[in-house]
Design goal:
Elements lengths: L1 E2 L7 E2 L1 E6 L16 E6 L16 E5 L11 H8 L3 E6 L8 H9 L2 E4 L4 H24 L15 H14 L5 E4 L6 H10 L8 E5 L8 H6 E2 L11 E2 L1 H4 L4 E5 L6 H5 L2 H6 L1 E2 L8 E2 L3 E6 L3 H6 L5 H7 L2 E4 L10 H15 L6 E2 L1 H9 L5 H15 L4 E2 L1 H4 L9 H5 L2 H19 L4 H8 L3 H11 L21
Parallel strand pairs: 3-4, 3-5, 5-6, 6-7, 8-15, 8-16, 9-12, 12-15, 17-18
Antiparallel strand pairs: 1-2, 10-11, 13-14
Helix pairs in contact: 4-5, 12-14, 17-18, 17-19, 18-19
Length: 475
């Protein structure tokens, strides 16, 4: 919708109106002159973003007539729609430590209470819409050559849930541990937490632990005073001190050696640092985020990571989904990467053929988003036609071009779902077939048949380690 608006500018603005019943109250019908309004019924169960709903920059959560907000799937709807800014309409200011207070603080840029001022609401929405548009333009103008830029993009359930968890964690000040395979975007997740936290106006300091020499660990992290060692010609603040008031990211913390880990203990416990050559502790206010490719619990069991450090870092954990668990996002991610490639080479417009997309969907993606980005970049550079083929991607054999189509059959997807369900239920039932059959709501015989069909092994009672109960001191 084009409209002169309150500021006299010709704009096209869209607005989500999230309310019970999905109706715009007559009090606010004047907004329809300045906005294209998309009503959404808060009373319905949340679902993935409707395909007809565009990517809207601002939204209103109308809770003016809601009695008990806990009866609504409010947070799920907010995360599903996810505009850049929300404004909530409340009958009165929310009580401290209430659900409404948590939602407003965690998701909303502003809130209005009765009596509502329509003009003030319109101006506020317009301001937020303009800021969101400016940020979007800045992001599009930036060079998006790094796979990290798209790491949290998409609408698959796995990545939507991950964004929701990151957003909730951002409202705390506790240390966070981000786990993920190589190429899943761990540093992007750390940036997301910083950008949505109270520390977003402060510095964002990233320390690559894998490249931190043991002999320089203390100097690099804590800084030094002039004359502390031979080449200390001037005093220098360490990386932790540089992050004061902001966020410190310890990237690939699992790469630190045990003696390097020990230098972090006092800082994590007391939030103080002491420069080399100084005896004056300095208190710092830093949000700590650590990233790792390997579960630290396993490293602790292997005595390769200090338990006291882990317990100070692992209270809040986020597991980033690998690309193979969010294949629904592949078409969107591919289009984004190819659009960027087109900007770098305007004379080359590339699109994926059907067989190429089939190969992408059936690939296991050990390198995750980094591998996807590299394969598409390679295809753009090497393909001589406008259509990218499986061979351009380095996937699928020329001898069996129908293989990806066969793998995409409904029968194979059903078989994959059956195998995953059987494996999952056997694991949580401790490989007790009868218990797993009850979880699946099928007979024991049917489960044995499915296990034989899919070649699913299970540990028998003879091979499974059972606790030994002794009486009288003898087995």
């Amino acid at each position: 919708m084009q409209d002169q608006g309150i500021q006299g500018m010709t704009v096209e603005r869209e607005l989500i109106w999230l309310s019970p019943g999905g109706r715009l109250p007559t009090t606010f019908t004047e907004l329809a002159r300045h906005w294209i309004i998309h009503p959404v019924d808060l009373g319905q169960p949340p679902r993935r973003r409707p395909s007809a709903l565009p990517r809207v920059r601002v939204g209103v959560i109308d809770l003016g007539d809601v009695g008990d907000p806990s009866a609504l799937d409010l947070e799920d709807w907010i995360e599903t729609l996810s505009p850049a800014h929300w404004i909530s309409l409340l009958p009165s200011p929310p009580d401290q430590n209430s659900l409404l207070s948590d939602i407003v603080a965690g998701y909303c840029t502003d809130y209005h209470t009765r009596p509502y001022d329509l003009r003030r609401l319109d101006v506020t929405l317009g301001h937020l819409w303009g800021m969101a548009r400016l940020m979007a333009l800045r992001q599009h103008s930036r060079v998006r050559g790094n796979f990290e830029e798209q790491a949290l993009d998409g609408e698959s359930p796995a990545i939507v849930e991950t964004r929701a968890l990151l957003r909730r964690i951002a409202q705390t000040t506790e240390p966070v541990l981000i786990l993920g395979e190589s190429g899943t975007g761990r540093n992007t997740a750390a940036h997301f937490i910083h950008d949505h936290s109270d520390a977003r106006q402060g510095p964002f300091v990233l320390v690559n632990c894998a490249a931190l020499p043991p002999t320089l660990t203390q100097s690099e992290l804590f800084g030094h005073e002039k004359g502390a060692f031979t080449h200390a010609l001037s005093a220098r603040a360490g990386r932790i001190e540089q992050a004061d008031g902001g966020t410190l990211v310890l990237s690939d913390i699992d790469e630190l050696q045990l003696e390097q880990q020990s230098t972090l203990l006092r800082f994590l416990q007391e939030s103080v640092v002491e420069r080399l050559g100084s005896h004056n502790p300095r208190r710092v206010r830093v949000r700590v985020i650590a990233t790792t490719t390997h579960p630290l619990e396993q490293r602790v069991r292997e005595e390769q990571f200090r338990a006291d450090i882990f317990y100070r870092l692992g209270n809040l954990q986020v597991q980033l989904p690998p690309l193979r668990d969010r294949l629904e996002d592949l078409p969107f991610l591919c289009n984004t990467i190819l659009r960027h490639a087109h900007r770098l080479s305007p004379h080359k417009t590339r699109r994926l053929c059907e067989d190429a997309m089939a190969c992408l969907l059936t690939h296991n993606w050990p390198g995750n988003l980094r591998e996807l980005h590299n394969r598409l970049q390679r295809a753009v550079l090497l393909s001589e036609s406008d259509t990218i083929t499986p061979e351009d991607l380095g996937l699928c054999s020329r001898d069996n071009p129908e293989q990806p189509r066969t793998q995409l059959s409904l029968e194979r997807f059903r078989a994959r779902a059956e195998r995953e369900a059987i494996t999952y239920c056997l694991n949580i039932a401790n490989h007790n077939v009868s218990a797993a059959a009850r979880l699946l709501r099928i007979s024991r015989l049917s489960l044995y048949r499915l296990m034989a069909k899919h070649g699913t092994a299970h540990e028998s009672s003879s091979t499974r380690r059972e606790p030994v109960h002794r009486k009288g001191g003898h087995p």
